[in-house]
Amino acid sequence: MRGTTIAGRYRLAETIGSGGMGEVWRAHDLQVGRDIALKTITLDGDPLREAAFRREAGVAARLSHPHVVPVHDHGSADVDGRRVLFLAMDLVVGHPLSSLISGPHHPVADTLVWAIQISQALQAAHQVGVVHRDIKPSNILIDNLGDARVCDFGIARLSDTLTRHTLTVTGVAIGTPAYMSPEQARGDKDLAAPSDMYSLGCLIHELLTGACPFDGAGWHVLHQHLHETPAALSTLRPAVPRELEDLVLELLDKDPARRPTAAATAKRLSRLHAAAVAHAAVPTITPHHPPVPTLADTPSAARRGGHPGRTALWTGAVTGAAIAGELVWTTPLPSPWPTALGAFAGLLLTAFYLLDAPGKARPAELRITTVGLFTLLLIALGGSVGVLVSQPSLWWAALAIAFLGGPALIVCSTIVRRTVQHLLQRPARQADFASTAGALHTVTLLLAADHAGIPALTLLAAGLMLWPITALLTALVTSRPAEA
């Protein structure tokens, strides 16, 4: 059919896709002078099917949303003695989502962005009563800006009458088995919006784990959709946030009435994406920004940032040696006290960090490790006791340090950690470790400066400058950046 002009307007150039619903061609619209995508479906002359096609295509043509591939024109024509139905759509420069699924380590950030966009497209369709019926990776296009766009809206319904890819002995065509809702598996004809949401749950599951919730073929998959509970995402990919795992399980509920709507799903996914970006504090894929970095909690990023045990030992050793050197140069302590104190500080830091197993942070939790929190509270307590012992008349200052010093140090630690993350592209845990080590360096240097009679305000200003500097130096010496 290459070179054929359909309906006197669309000249076919090359095939860019094919499937159960026909072929997709790159075509040139002679009327407006631009390239478009033209989907063609060959009929056997049945006027009822052609009427159904026109009805459903008309519904699809009325959908207008940034994440829906728009239908500009539809109709029928005689080509080489055959009746051909056609849909003229935007030519999306990009790739189908099915070609981008990269197995169990697909970045969570990408999955969230695409799932949000698909949910928004479904929300727009469901609001006008359109049900897609065949949400799957090959029907999602990722354009050259990194955005997801859903195609075949309203046309998937025609698969029941225009194609013959059946799975039942009754001859009812029911779609793509791996992404079918239980109601589709039963052969229900009046499918509603929850069916699309179940298919979206299957798609998100595949993006996160590299596999659909249920595998196999034919009746085996249908039976699983109808009767079996999918495995929790955390058993297949532990780094998946609990809230996302819960949402996917709700989308895969056997009861359509219990599944979240497209609007509720988009809202929850948006909150998860915002929390993930805030927690990772590294660049992630967003709409209209092509680069696709990974979140810092993925296994590959952890490997690139270095083994956490080796990082802890090396950071503890460097911190201990630096503190020993600082004590030697700034205090009159006799040998071997500087070395012993430095070694003790380094060993404690390493031991606490190794014992503080990394956990999956919640959006509302404090973004600080246990060792970092303990160290800062210990510093605040030490400062309070020091003031009380050295100058009892300043008991009010000691009391203020005891109550306000901890929270103030935690705020400062958060600023220093984020500075290390952004400037040096370190994972959050390594940046927190560097911030804690920097706090110890700063306290050591300030204690030495206090003995020299430097005023308190000057010490405070010096500390605010020394802390981020020593943290950055520690991060530079002890760990590698987590590459995108």
Could you walk me through the main structural features you see in this protein, from its secondary elements to its overall organization?
- By secondary structure, this protein is of the alpha+beta class.
- It is built from 16 helices and nine strands.
- The strands form two sheets. A six-stranded antiparallel beta sheet has the order 1-2-3-4-6-5, covered by helices on one side.
- A hairpin with a 2-residue loop joins strand 2 and strand 3.
- The radius of gyration is 31 Å and the shape is elongated.
- CATH class membership of the largest domain: Mainly Alpha
**Low-pLDDT residue spans:** 159-174, 289-306, 359-366, 480-484
Alpha-carbon distance between the termini?
A: 44 Å
The portion of residues forming beta strands comes to: 5-15%
Instruction: State the helicity in percent bands.
Output: 40-55%
Query: SS-based structural class?
Result: alpha+beta
CATH architecture of the largest domain: Orthogonal Bundle
Mean pLDDT: 76
Summarize the structure.
With 484 residues, this protein is α+β, with helices and mostly antiparallel strands. It has 16 helices and nine strands.
